[in-house]
């Protein structure tokens, strides 16, 4: 699994490479600039006008190396706009070279950019963003912040007012300037079409709120020894299809050993959510699904979904259900929050069965936790699947001493800490759903890039919830819950991609139709990766 690191860890990698392995900073910078230029060069031509924005730190130094490369390659419409007062030694060396080569160079120092700088930006076809990198502290301030908003206005002018007649391509070096580990999610940042990051992926680039500012992401290694990169601690694990862990089933498998899940879902106006979750479970290879629903809902769901075993349920009857017989239980999709829900969920939380709580179930869970904080640390193997709004509700239910900042505006490091804290406090795996989904299991945090708006459709979360329960039922009990959660998120993500290819835009039931193929493709590839040939 690929790893993502904090800026602090990256700085330690940098220091280690220089101190222990004797690789001078200026050598790393030269390679960083050259490799970034090589990538950018694939997208641009020498007849384009390229503006290099270079702050006073090493991020600016990287941009200056790129400007020099552009010059050497015969780009003749190059401008460098430099800013900052504290200039790092390697950046100063590169500024000196740019001067002696006679490249157009405007140094605004700490002054605000004037009309001439704005005019240069307006003429740009390509903007290389080297204002700030991993050395940023707090939200971007001063003239660097003004330059970021000027670039935003140039992009707006060229894209929206001139109707795409002139496009500006923004390429950020290492991170879009303004993006940083301790920067709140709402801070203004450079919006890039491409970000070329150095050495390793950074946490900050994967924060849902910052991810789209990065555009396409590439990683280059400016020369950090692999042994130093491999030793990085305190990482995020960036998971992809190859990290799916379920294998193809034994050919003798039968409904009774393909997992039996119980689903508590559906209410008068949301019976569809129950159907989606149950059907998703079948398409995620589950053998048997029993739905417990209210009396007025059960016949409706039974009629529309003949494969599901349906039972009616009320809080008085819950004690008589053999809950431990199920391989996993799902509670919450379209369930409603009133009536007997708290009583039922309280019983489910007290069983030894694996439990996934989604949607309305999360509101009910938060309410139970608020009433009885001990409840949060005494239950079964648990997965919680909040979307951003539900995540806030779970966060608000934490004891006040564990709540520090507003979770909706959390900085990357804080987001990671919050998820880890919540996961430890609730003793649950948390799947924080979004276009970039973070999964926390108390000690590790995994990230899955989804980034496909077609999957953000009504009922998509219900499909994930059913898939997750099926995945929990399929995993051996000694395997980690995080592996079940990860598998579910990957199947759901890949099913969304298939549905997009098949249908273009689609409804949640269409995800279900391709879920089985997505599942098989992942499981088959997993078989291949273990070197088994048939
Ligand atoms: N050996 C190295 O040093 C290498 C560094 N690399 C580059 O160097 C970068 C890190 O360089 P630095 O540590 O010098 O720092 P940066 O260049 O990322 O940023 C520091 C600069 O930003 C200013 N700054 C900090 N916080 C600010 C704020 N809130 N508002 C406005 N300005 C602010 C500082 O005064 C300084 O000029 C990486 O992102 C990467 O691009 C790469 O070249 C790889 C090798
Ligand atoms: N832009 C996007 N790219 C990829 N996945 C997305 C995007 N937007 C939402 N999703 C995914 O879609 C699902 C939506 O879940 P949720 O909001 O609970 O939907 P619902 O409540 O309608 O069932 C989540 O799994 C989320 O990760
Ligand atoms: K940058």
UniProtKB/TrEMBL annotation:
All copies of domain YjeF C-terminal, residue ranges: 238-522
Keywords: ATP-binding, Isomerase, Lyase, Metal-binding, Multifunctional enzyme, NAD, NADP, Nucleotide-binding, Potassium
Binding site for (6S)-NADPHX: 58-62, 133-139, 174, 273, 334, 387, 462
Annotated residues for binding of K(+): 59, 129, 177
Cofactor binding: number and manner: Binds 1 potassium ion per subunit.
Pfam families, A to Z: Carb_kinase, YjeF_N
Coiled coil: none
Reported function: Bifunctional enzyme that catalyzes the epimerization of the S- and R-forms of NAD(P)HX and the dehydration of the S-form of NAD(P)HX at the expense of ADP, which is converted to AMP. This allows the repair of both epimers of NAD(P)HX, a damaged form of NAD(P)H that is a result of enzymatic or heat-dependent hydration.
Self-association state and partner proteins as the record states: Homotetramer.
Protein name, UniProt field: Bifunctional NAD(P)H-hydrate repair enzyme
Organism: Parasphaerochaeta coccoides (strain ATCC BAA-1237 / DSM 17374 / SPN1)
Gene: nnrD
């Amino acid at each position: 699994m690929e790893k993502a690191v904090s800026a602090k860890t990256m700085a330690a990698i940098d220091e280690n490479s220089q101190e222990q392995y004797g690789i001078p900073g200026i050598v790393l910078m030269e390679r960083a600039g050259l490799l970034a230029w090589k990538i950018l060069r694939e997208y641009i031509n020498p007849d384009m006008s390229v503006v290099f924005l270079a702050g006073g730190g090493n991020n600016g130094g990287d941009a200056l190396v790129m400007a020099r490369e552009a010059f050497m390659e015969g780009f003749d419409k190059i401008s460098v706009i430099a800013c900052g007062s504290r200039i790092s030694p390697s950046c100063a060396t590169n500024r000196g070279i740019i001067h002696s080569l006679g490249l157009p160079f405007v140094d605004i120092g700490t002054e605000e950019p004037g009309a001439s700088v704005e005019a240069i930006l307006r003429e740009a076809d390509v903007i290389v963003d080297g204002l700030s990198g991993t050395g940023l502290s707090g939200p971007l301030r001063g003239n660097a912040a003004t330059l970021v908003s000027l670039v935003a206005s140039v992009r707006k002018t060229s894209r929206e007012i001139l109707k795409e007649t002139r496009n500006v391509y923004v390429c950020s070096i290492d991170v879009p300037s303004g993006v940083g580990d301790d920067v709140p999610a709402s801070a203004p940042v450079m919006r890039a079409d491409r970000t070329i990051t150095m050495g390793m992926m950074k946490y900050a680039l994967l924060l849902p709120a910052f991810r789209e500012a990065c555009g396409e992401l590439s990683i280059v290694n400016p020369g950090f020894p692999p042994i130093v990169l491999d030793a990085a601690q305190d990482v995020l694990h960036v998971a992809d299809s190859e990290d799916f862990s379920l294998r193809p089933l034994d050919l003798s498998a039968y409904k009774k050993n393909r997992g039996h899940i119980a689903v508590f879902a559906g209410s008068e106006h949301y019976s569809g959510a129950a159907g989606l979750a149950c059907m998703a479970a079948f398409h995620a290879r589950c053998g048997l699904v029993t739905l417990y629903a209210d009396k007025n809902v059960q016949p409706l769901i039974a009629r529309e979904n003949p494969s599901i075993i349906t039972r009616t349920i009320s809080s008085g009857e819950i004690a008589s259900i053999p809950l431990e017989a199920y391989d996993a239980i799902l509670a919450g999709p379209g369930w409603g929050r009133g009536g007997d829900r708290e009583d039922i969920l309280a019983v489910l939380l007290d069983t030894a069965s694996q439990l996934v709580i989604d949607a309305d179930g999360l509101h009910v869970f938060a309410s139970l936790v608020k009433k009885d904080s001990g409840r949060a640390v005494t239950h079964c193997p648990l997965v919680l699947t909040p979307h951003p709004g539900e995540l806030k509700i779970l966060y608000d239910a934490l004891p006040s001493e564990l709540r520090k900042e507003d979770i909706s505006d959390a900085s990357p490091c804080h987001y990671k800490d919050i998820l880890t804290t919540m996961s430890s406090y609730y003793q649950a795996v948390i799947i924080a759903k979004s276009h970039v989904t973070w999964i926390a299991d108390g000690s590790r945090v995994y990230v899955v890039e989804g980034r496909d708006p077609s999957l953000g459709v009504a009922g998509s979360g219900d499909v994930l919830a059913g898939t997750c329960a099926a995945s929990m039922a399929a995993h051996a009990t000694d395997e980690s819950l995080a592996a079940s959660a990860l598998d579910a998120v990957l199947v759901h993500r890949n099913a969304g991609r298939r549905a997009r290819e098949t249908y273009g835009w689609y409804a949640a039931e269409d995800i279900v139709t391709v879920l089985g193929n997505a599942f098989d493709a992942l499981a088959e590839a997993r078989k291949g990766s273990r070197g088994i040939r048939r």
